[in-house]
Write a structure and sequence with these properties.
The chain is mostly helical. The protein has 18 helices and no strands.
Length: 440
Amino acid sequence: MAAASLASFRRAARESVAGLPREFWWLWTSTLVNRLGAFVATFMALYLTLERGYSASFAGLVAALHGLGGVVSSLVAGVMTDRLGRRPTLMAAQASTAVAVAVLGFMEHPVAIALVALVVGMTSNASRPAVQAMMSDIVAPEDRVRAFALNFWAINLGFAVSSTAAGFVAEYSYLAGFLGEAALTLVCAVLVYVKLPESRPERSGTGAGDGAAAEEAVSLRTVLRDKRFMGVVGLSFLISLIFTQGSVGLPVAMGAGGFSAGDYGMVIAVNGVLIVLLQLPVTRFVEHRDPQRLLVVSALLAGYGFGLTAFAGSIGAYALSVCVWTLAEIINAPTQMGLVVRLSPAHGRGRYQGMYTMSWSVAALVAPLMAGYVIDRFGAEWLWGSTAVLGTAAAFGYWALMRRLATGSGTGAGDDGAAAGPPVAAPAGAGADVPVDVTP
């Protein structure tokens, strides 16, 4: 019995990684190394409140500035990804992030901390559109959901290791954490330079033909006019506003409750460990099922999973709530990314991914302000109650959006022939295949 189970696991593992190009695996390795050094985003709130003695509101302000930097850089990096290429954008973003993170570790004045955190937010977020566009370029359409799941798995494999280790590093020296992240981010830049070729699709022509005209039509205005895609962006904002509380509201609430940085590190490591263990088998189970139901269920699990935190009073209870919203992440991440790619034209992937990334950046801007204000004024219980409300709203939004996509209504620029991406039909019911990607 045990031998059969082991053989089944090995077969499932081989099928999960088979058929993906070598370039994908170098990009995957770069992602893994980068997340092994994730320190600032995870421990900034604890660093400011416990190490520096600032209030939760100031910690929220700094985190919001970090998010503001991401809002600005998302769109700029998206345009750079399309115009300059994926590879140079990615290298520039990672090299500048390494420098900015190292500098942040030496800042002591509150104004200096806030300003450098803004720069870190700009540089660190600039790599996301390039990574996502490159992954869409080099992976075949039928393998993209699996590839996004594997990339998300790498992010959390690194996070599971780094969050636990960094928790103890923080108790010894926060500066060591900043410098460690800077070093690993620089390794990522070198890896991209040495191993990854440019993947930006070549334009079909330079004349005034229909193909070239369609390619040139992809601009930020095109993205904004694409109503169906902007609906996905809006719902992504609600979901990310919830998930961001895992690195903003949760550590502040646990710190206020008398828990240490090491305690928070162990609790949040549950998130990474579960994703490492469950991401691949769950993705195999859901990748050909109705995305409407998957997105609705994931939104409810996210909202009410964080809502359970209001009743937590021990490390075990906090870990249990993390288990619930982690399942939401496992389901939502590859499903939503697959939808984003299907709605993105090949020559506008940078801009589309930049707009999508901006939804997470805006959430990173709003979430810490929300968490700091609510915790300081009303208490953490009100924060967790608000996540349940947001999860319910997002679930209804996904249900409505996917119904409109199924009937072909509610589309934006794609209706009049602009390069806004292909029509997407939602499957009729559970068990139906995910729509086939026909992006040019």
